[in-house]
Design brief:
Blueprint (H helix, E strand, L loop, with lengths): L1 E6 L5 E6 L4 E6 L5 E7 L5 E7 L2 E10 L5 E9 L5 E9 L3
Antiparallel strand pairs: 1-2, 3-4, 4-5, 5-6, 6-7, 7-8
């Protein structure tokens, strides 16, 4: 399961909780026109793909780091002008 708390471009709060089998199948997101695809592509890494209208809208790779309390997430996306981008973030577990 993943939980995402954030803000949209208009600074309105967003909160999503999603998850499921890491089987590469389309999983509809309730209350949305989007589907999520989750898959494990090696022992440590998970990929999430968000699709809208059958097209990839966003893609993330997640890698737990050796301390198991830190995760690297790489977001792969496309800007409105068609240019690709990557964001790399480090997340730490808070207990």
């Amino acid at each position: 399961m993943f939980t995402l708390d954030g803000e949209d471009a208009d600074r309105k709060p967003m909160k999503f909780t999603y998850g499921g089998a890491l089987d590469g199948r389309d999983q509809p997101l309730p209350g949305s026109d989007a589907v999520l695809v989750l898959m494990r592509y090696d022992q440590r890494n998970i990929e999430s793909i968000l699709k809208r209208g059958g097209k990839v809208a966003d893609r993330w790779t997640r890698e737990p780091l050796p301390d198991l309390n830190t995760m690297r997430i790489i977001q792969h996306g496309v800007k409105p002008d068609g240019c690709e981008f990557q964001n790399v973030s480090i997340y730490r577990r808070i207990e």
